[in-house]
Amino acid sequence: MKKITQKGVYLLLLLSSMLGNSQESPDTSKSLIKARLQLVKGSKDYNPEKAIASYTELASQGNPVAMNALGLIYTKGTGISVNEQEGIKWLEKAAQAGYAKAWYNLGIVYQEGISVPANPLKTIQYFEKAATAGYGSAYTAWGRMLMKGNGVPQDYPLAMSIFKQGAEKGNSHCSYLQGYLYYKGFGCTQDYSIAIQHFEIAIQKNNPWAMYMLGLCYRNGYGVDINLEKAKNYLSRSAAMGVKPSQMELDDPEAENHSPNQTKTISAPIGEVITINETEAPETFKKVKQVPITTDISGNYTGYALRYDFSGQNILSKTLLQIDLNQDGKALNGEWKEIDGDTVTFKAHIQEDAIVFKDSKIDRTEHFYKGNLNRYEFKNATLQLLQTDESLFIVGNLQFYNIKERENEKPMYLILEKKQTRTSEVQQVISSVAIYPNPVVTDFSLSFDLAKPADVGVSIYYITGRELYTQQWKNLEQGTQTRTLSLNAPAGYYVLRLTYGTEVKTTILIKK
Question: Which residues form the signal peptide (predicted)?
């Protein structure tokens, strides 16, 4: 016997799935089954001419299953030449006759766009009609188009809503995709625990991708205690069902979260840091609010980029960097060099609330792409400048976009340093900063010297970076300045900052 072709198997599956949903007389069902087998190239029953004749006769009697079959035959060119217009005509008739899956098949035709132009909007409309008419698998295709932004604007909240509807109708892949969005925090608050709940629901229906994701959770301690035995069990079951990433994970001796901060990572809200006061690597991710960049940041910088898991609770990698920046007004371009990786050029535009990159890409490898390079786009950055006596630091967040997966990469935190040489101490406008008494009860005196007349700002922050107090002193004279301030706040440590342009002086306040 000849080998059955892939196209024949594909069509066989499409047609056989239709028969299980139809309410036919025994004679009609027998005719449909026989016609279906006659389309399988390489089988003893193969006879596409007779199959088409049978379907045409049944379709003329108003049978929607036969109409749908003719639509597939003409659009796929099974036993005849491809004729998508004829196929579309029959699929539309089947759909209008109440056969829900015909709407889905119409969506596939307009998604692939072979002889008819691809039309993502029509595809979504047909997937939606198929889902609401009762074809549950269409929820997956409908939601994924919006999740990935395939030809339509990316809309995570709407995709989540669609997956929820599909899951409620028993679609296990929709349950998995709900978990996927919660795992990564796309269109929702990132939460490993909720993600796991959805994975477990999908696994009850033997969904292999949910097994893969739950295996990752147990291996890395995401939302559950690290349990390598359970991780291996779920990954092995998934791999046996054909999920290649599961086998890759089993073959990799090192987990993504190879140096966890804890055995169980609990997702927690990440607040926005208004002011950065330190240049050390934070153990957990900090979301940085950009401060308007009012000075030229051109120069040669060294530093590193930290990658965190999606919850921001664990550092996954540290990449050493050399970066050359050239600023021209609001335009920024430069060279990004990873010490053990790629070197690329980039260009961006400085805005008030972010730095937005344009046509800037990089090839990188990471845990899930070991042995291969994956391409990412520089998307945006939110940065702050921190001036010390010897260096200018650029600190903040960088967002990469995974082009293959059509989604944002994990959180990243940048720390870059440009060494500066001062010709003399007089270049420092602010000096000799002192607080007394310290610790303070309520009122305290702040003194500092000015090398020239200047406008000086003072701010007090909680140790977390949230601003407590700020004031601007205009037209201060050269010489020693003394001001009395009050600290009406709970006992603890606070950060006081004096600023003149990009020059910043920082000291610690202790409240009794």
Answer: 1-22
CA atoms of 317 and 421, how far apart (whole Å)? 32
Instruction: Decide if 28 contacts 60 (C-beta within 8 A).
Output: no
Distances, alpha carbon 289 to alpha carbons 237, 274, 396, 465, in Å: 44, 5, 8, 11
Contact 308, 317 (CB under 8 A): no
d(CA 449, CA 436): 15
Q: How far is CA 296 from CA 320, 324, 389, 429, 501, in A?
A: 24, 13, 17, 18, 11
Q: What angle do CA 235, 241, 243 make, to 5 degrees?
A: 60
Q: Write the secondary structure of 364-425 as one string of H (helix), E (strand) and C (coil).
A: ECCHHHCCCCEEEEEEEEEEEEEECCCEEEEEEEEEEEECCCCEECCCEEEEEEEECCCCCH
Q: What is the CATH number of domain 289-511?
A: 2.60.40.2550
Residue 426 has pLDDT above 60, yes or no: no
Q: In the 8-state DSSP scheme, what is residue 426? A: G
Q: How far apart are CA 232 and CA 507, in angstroms?
A: 51
Spatial CA neighbour of 164 closest among 192, 187, 133: 187
pLDDT per residue as tens digits for the range 42-84: 888 888 889 889 999 999 999 999 999 999 999 888 888 888 8
With CA atoms as reference, report the closest residue to 227 among 269, 263, 252, 262. 263
DSSP letter for each residue of 97-110? TT-HHHHHHHHHHH
Strand ranges (E), 90-238: none
User: Residue 327 forms beta bridges with which residues?
Assistant: 332
DSSP 8-state assignment for residue 118: P
Q: If we measure between CA atoms, which residue out of 127, 130, 76 comes closest to residue 99?
A: 130
- Kindly state the tokens that stand for 370: 């070991």
The answer to whether the CB of 368 falls within 8 A of the CB of 376 is: no
Distances (CA, A) of 461 to 448, 494, 496: 19, 6, 7
DSSP conformation class of 272? E
Q: Where are the domains of the chain?
A: 11-251, 289-511
Q: Is the pLDDT of residue 202 over 60?
A: yes
Topology of the domain covering 11-251 = 1.25.40
Alpha-carbon distances, residue 292 vs 66, 382, 398, 413, 457 (angstroms): 65, 10, 16, 18, 15
CA distance 49 to 446: 95
CA distance 29 to 21: 11
Pairing of strands 492-500, 361-364: unpaired
CA distance 303 to 279: 10
Q: Contact 114/84 with Cβ under 8 angstroms?
A: yes
Q: Tell me the CA distances in angstroms from 96 to 57, 62, 106, one per residue in order.
A: 18, 11, 12
pLDDT of residue 430: 92
Q: If DSSP codes are grouped into helix, strand and coil, which group holds residue 318?
A: strand
pTM over 0.85: no
Q: What does the block give as tokens for 306?
A: 């930290």
